[in-house]
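Table S2 (text version). Query chain:
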Amino acid sequence: MSDLRSRLRLCHPTGVAVGAAGLLAALVWLGGVAMPVPVATGGDSTVQLRMIVVLAGAILVAVPMRSPMADWEAGAGPLARRMELTLLAVLAWAGAVLVGVGEALVRSPESAASLLRAQAIWLGLAVVSARLLGGWSRAWVLPLATIFPLTYLGWDAAGEVRWWNWLWQPHTATGCWALAAVGVAGAVLALWATPWRTRRLRGRLRRGRGALPAAPARPGSRTKAPAAR
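Corresponding structure-token output:
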């Protein structure tokens, strides 16, 4: 527990708490505020503030994982990795509770399920973004990049919501829940792919393709011949 508290101090807990309180307040009191956004097929879509709040909440879970010791933590041992994963789980659980309970009380359980699905997808993208782009400080890149396709490209020529548009599909949409499962699986894979695991995996792949024959020793080299038995 002391190790977890030490790790918590590195992720600016006061800022995270203030940000979470602000996002919850926006979700409860301003979540229904709408803004029309043009779509590619003509007309516009109505983006409600609670959709953006959930995106910001997913990023708020991942970005604070950045710490001044990030370079050391990238190659740290099992204890530091365990603390990192525990902290991420705590932040993700807290974010899910805030979004789920707040939205269910203010609007409906169905709306809460849709927002939790979106949060799972965006959090998975945030973790993958952090891994691919070189650190938790870049966890916002991939989640933010989804806003354009979700809004501008999210409807087909007939005006129907595309199957992958998780913000406007109903909470029962199977395809969007499959995307949530893929997002969570991607996050798990990204967290598993530590530097030493990927290095070990590359070594195994090279050995699987066959080791290169050793180069013959040059005349006069200091390489010793094996001792006679």
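Notes on Table S2: The first strand starts at residue 34 and ends at 38. Residues 74 and 197 are 12 Å apart (CA to CA).
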